[in-house]
Write a structure and sequence with these properties.
By secondary structure, this protein is of the alpha/beta class. It contains 15 helices and 36 strands. A hairpin with a 4-residue loop joins strand 31 and strand 32.
Length: 691
């Protein structure tokens, strides 16, 4: 570490500091009452006072201490181990739990002597360290590389060693996901590329929702490896009743068959379908011969009207998002042409409205019981908007606009957005809003705040209310930019669509009039945490959370008791992961002297994604390694990786210079030095009898 002293004034000003210290010391020690001191003591005291005054004078020059520190960073080596269940499907599962585990640990120890080595295991999530029990139920390379990019960006990353079989069943393939890191990849080819005798219920395509009285299709994909000449029977059961059977003759060793099945939606609610294939002799695994499917049967589709002032790309973005769901029938009309009945819709989305020209129709919409979502644009008549008492008052400057980004309000609790959406939305392009002061009414709940640069204001961007009916206001236009950004980053519009769908779902869903409301999924997979939300409403229609809300989950012979956590306006509970089974829910709450109880049920289904394929994809691993300048090795030869990495001269330590400026007056040692000098002077004077 090197130090350099700099000042705001020229350094030759130090001469004046020294002269001031000398003058002060001479004047002080030529007083008559100090004549009793010997010449040597007097000179010593003068020297001490000279140093104190000179230092104090020098500090008036605002000196800065410049330090330069050199930091040496070792190359970072990542070892990522695939901990998904597909690794142990083959006959060599014992090898991967014992001998392979020892080899991988030894590789980590050997590399740690010269490199900074980080060990991870991955599947449906990424965790630190290795896990040779292979518990993870999915393989998602996207999550792994998003984690690596977030944690090790701008680090001296030398290489990535990834031990996997190349099978994936969520997110992107390893070939695509690995493009995020421009480093050599050393792939360890796990698993077996040989096709084993196995009958597989590979995929069931179905809609998550259907409508009462309709017939909905499901498509079942059957695969069979090395099973030529065998027979199996496909069965579909609804609530334990067999509703479809088909005998299947397997006529090749690489057999595929699509079987369409049509099912009547006769009852409202969750339909639980069990699909299974009868097993054949000596097949690799029977666990992938069956699966569960859940379809939510709704009474009817919700009718949504997008009523716009004029054409705009936001309209197509909203329509496409809603059309991606089976729950909505979407109509688009321009207000000049609209002749319909507003009360025939479950939700009306007003884009760049209201305006002064259509005051009667706008008043009819806002006074009706139909929820509405108002999206403010540059053509919105702000005076007319303030007049309909939509939930916000805007003091706008005519014609002026502002560009603002979104900032998630941490206290928002009316519904939940995914973590991915919460993280992404703050990086999406700004929306264009009318420039002005935004004053929401007291009953409104803010979901998004306006952010300009890094400054988050208390001005709302998205707010919702539920006083007489549900409504929402988005204070700007430009949702189409969010959709394009989402596609550019994630190669899909899933998150942008989620923002629209979750908002519409809240607004369009019929309100539960009970003072105590509990919301949850009716089914989850066994790798998903159970999340339950609850609300309490007092007699004034206000959300409250002053009292505790309890929950009892019972099933599989066990009972679990919980207390909900309080959010700003409601309650939430993350109960964690549960074993496969059906569970009963009982939640209790009180408002004053009244007691309320909710009864419900929830099914945890097994996620069998890892069981649908046992054939390793070593060609992809070889492609990833060669394209990045790395090498693919087999588990028996993974010891060679350390020599391969050590032979690369570009994987070397990097040094960084860190410069820092500090005010000298803030340094503790300067204060200690001054106190020491003054204390020494005082002690000598007292000891020598001078006062």
């Amino acid at each position: 570490m090197n130090f350099e002293l700099i000042t705001e004034k020229p350094l030759w000003f130090i001469v004046f500091c020294l002269l001031l210290g000398a003058a002060y010391a001479l004047l002080l020690y030529h007083k008559d009452n100090l004549t009793a001191l010997s010449t040597s003591i007097k000179r010593s005291l003068m020297a001490l006072r000279f140093m104190v005054v000179s230092i104090l004078a020098f500090l008036l020059l605002s000196p800065l201490l410049k330090s330069i520190t050199r930091t040496v960073e070792k190359p970072l080596i990542i070892i990522a181990q695939d901990a998904s269940q597909s690794i142990t499907l083959g006959k060599d599962s014992g090898f991967y739990k014992t001998e392979f585990a020892e080899k991988l640990n030894n590789l980590q120890k050997h590399l740690s002597s010269n490199y900074d080595v980080r060990a991870l295991n991955f599947g449906s999530e990424t965790k630190p360290g290795f896990d040779f029990s292979y518990p993870q139920k999915q393989t998602d390379y996207s999550i792994l590389f998003e984690n690596l990019s977030a944690r090790f960006d701008n680090r001296n990353l030398g290489a990535v060693i990834i031990a996997t079989d190349g099978i994936y069943n969520a997110g992107s393939s390893l070939l695509y996901a690995s493009e995020k890191l421009k480093v050599p990849f050393y792939t360890i080819a796990m698993g077996d590329t040989t096709a084993k005798k196995d009958l597989i219920l590979a995929k069931v395509k179905h809609n998550k929702t259907a409508f009462l009285g309709n017939t909905y299709p499901i498509e079942i994909l059957i695969e069979a490896k090395q099973c030529a000449g065998q027979n199996t029977t496909l069965e579909v059961l609804l609530d334990s009743n067999v509703i479809f059977t088909k005998d299947v003759n397997i006529n090749s060793n690489n057999f595929n068959l699509n079987v369409p099945v049509y099912i009547d939606a006769k009852e409202k609610g969750i339909q639980h379908l069990k699909i299974k294939l009868s097993s054949i002799a000596a097949e690799l695994s029977e666990a992938n011969n069956k699966t569960d499917v859940f379809v939510d049967v709704l009474e009817r589709k919700l009718q949504v009207l997008i009523l716009a002032l004029s054409p705009h790309p936001d309209i197509r973005t909203i329509k496409d998002a809603l059309s991606s769901s089976q729950n909505y029938d979407v109509s688009v009309n321009y207000i000049d042409d609209f002749k319909g009945n507003v009360t025939s819709y479950n939700l009306i989305i007003l884009h760049q409205l209201p305006d002064a020209k259509h005051k009667n129709l706008i008043d009819q919409i806002y006074k009706s019981d139909v929820p509405q979502w108002t999206i403010i644009g540059m053509q919105t008549d702000i005076t007319a908007l303030n007049g309909v008492q939509a939930g916000i008052n805007i003091n706008a400057s005519n014609g002026k606009t502002n560009s603002v980004q979104a900032s998630m309000d941490k206290n928002f609790g009316l519904f939940t957005w995914s973590v991915a959406l919460q993280e992404s939305i703050e990086n999406w392009p700004p929306l264009t809003i009318p420039f002005g002061v935004y004053r929401p009414t007291s009953e409104c709940v803010i979901a998004l705040n306006q952010r300009i640069g890094n400054v988050v204001s208390n001005q709302p961007l998205l707010l919702l209310s539920n006083l007489n009916k549900k409504n929402a206001i988005l204070c700007g236009e430009g949702l189409w930019r969010w959709s394009l950004k989402d596609f550019a980053v994630n190669n899909s519009k899933t998150l942008a669509d989620e923002f629209i769908l979750k908002t519409v779902q809240y607004l369009a869903t019929a309100e539960n009039k009970s003072p105590f409301r509990v919301k949850h999924k009716n089914y989850v997979y066994d790798n998903e945490a159970i999340i339950i939300d609850a609300e309490l409403v007092n007699e004034a229609g206000e959300l409250i959370n002053s009292n505790d809300v309890m929950l009892e989950i019972s099933g599989n012979g066990k009972t679990y008791n919980y207390t909900f956590s309080k959010t700003n306006l409601a309650y939430t509970l993350q109960a964690g992961l549960f074993p496969v089974g059906t569970y009963k829910l009982k939640s209790t709450a009180s408002i004053g002297t009244k007691q309320y109880t909710y009864h419900g049920s929830l099914t945890v289904a097994p996620l069998q994604a890892e069981l649908t394929s046992s054939i390793a994809n070593h060609n992809m691993l070889l492609n990833v390694a060669q394209r990045s300048g790395g090498v693919m090795v087999y588990p028996q030869s993974l010891d060679a990786i350390s020599k391969l990495i050590e032979s690369r001269p570009e994987i070397t330590s990097t040094s960084y210079l860190h410069k820092e400026l500090k005010d000298l007056v803030n340094e503790k040692w300067v204060f200690v030095l001054l106190i020491t000098l003054l204390s020494t002077e005082w002690f000598v004077r007292k000891y020598a009898g001078a006062y």
